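S1.2 Input.
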Amino acid sequence: MLAALLVFVVPWSPVPAAPAAPQRPVVLVVGDSLSAGYGIAPEESWVTLLGERLRSEGYGYQVVNASISGDTTTGGVRRLPRSLATHQPAVVIIELGGNDGLRGTPVNVMRTNLEQMITLAQEAGARVILAGMQIPTNYGAQYTRAFAAVYPELAKKYSLPLIPFFLDGVALDPTLIQADGIHPTAEAQPKLLANVWPVLKPALKPARTPAPRSSAAPAGRS
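S1.3 Output.
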C-alpha cells in the first residue's frame, strides 16, 4: 500500500524590497600620474581631496579616479569608452597630454586624441572640463607653444571650462616637486585642487540645502 503523500502549502507573501538608494552622480577623472597620485599615498592625492571637499560642502557627487601613471592621450582614447559605460559620469575631467609632450608626440596627434575624448564624453551626456598643460622647452620653443595652445583652442571650440595650467603654482616650485623633478609632492596636492575647484564648481549641481524648519508651535489638543 502506497503511503499517502501530503503536501502542506504555507501561505507566502513576498517581503517588499527596500528601495534602492539613489546613485550619486559621478565626477570621472581621466588623467596620468599627476592625478593617479604617483609617489604619494592615495589619500593624499588631489583627487581624494576633491572627494572630501564635495562631501564637506554637501554636493551629492562621488569621484572616480580613472587615472593611470604614464598614460597618454592615445591611451585615454582607448579606455575612455569603457569608463563612460561603467560609471556614466555627470562630469569628466580630462587631465592628459603631459606624457605626450615629454615624448615629443606630434601636436596634431595629441589634439585629435583630446578631441575624440571630448566628443565621446559629451555624446555620453557628460560635462567636460579640460586641464591645460605646459611643458619644458626640450623640443624647442615652437613645439612648446603649439603644445600649450591646444588646450585653450579646444576649450573654445567645444565651449569647455578650462583649467588654464593644471600645475600652476607647483611646477616651478622645487619644494613642491618630488626628487624625480616631475611629480608633485603630497604638499602640492591642495594647490592642484585649488586650481581645479574654481573651474569645476560651476559645472556641479548646486549643493543641497536642508528645508527650513517651521518655528510654529504644535497645535494643542481640543
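S1.4 Remarks. The domain at 26-203 is CATH 3.40.50.1110 (Rossmann fold).
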